[in-house]
Prior knowledge:
By secondary structure, the protein is of the alpha+beta class. Helix content is 24%, strand content 34%. It has helices at residues 2-7, 10-22, 113-119, 122-127, and strands at residues 28-33, 37-38, 45-46, 55-63, 66-76, 78-80, 86-88, 101-108.
Amino acid sequence: YKKIMDEGDSQAQMEASLAKASHDQSMFINVVVNSNQAVPDPSAKKIPLPPGALAAFRWDTSRDQVPSENALILVGQWRGNPDGTWKRVLHPTMAPTAAQVMSISITADPDRIAGIIGSIDVKSLAAALPK
């Protein structure tokens, strides 16, 4: 705090420091098995596929003036539709309740999301699902 005060413009610097610190106050990783549908945000852009993923998307949002990024990774057999939705493809020889698809949703600080995506072993998750 003293360093900020000594540099002048302390209010703006303090607000910037608090905003940076608040970026890590919330991070969400949600894994859903056998969802019938997944819907990326309309502003989502395709991103390079993590090994084992069928599709992957990323988009920006903000909440309470704190920017965040979102990602959606689809694993297993999904079918994309013209309206942007993705529907689960049922495996014909498996019970509908058996694990067939996964969706991984991530919300995190923009500086952290790439590392979070890279740390998820999507390939191992995909290996647990039918081809």
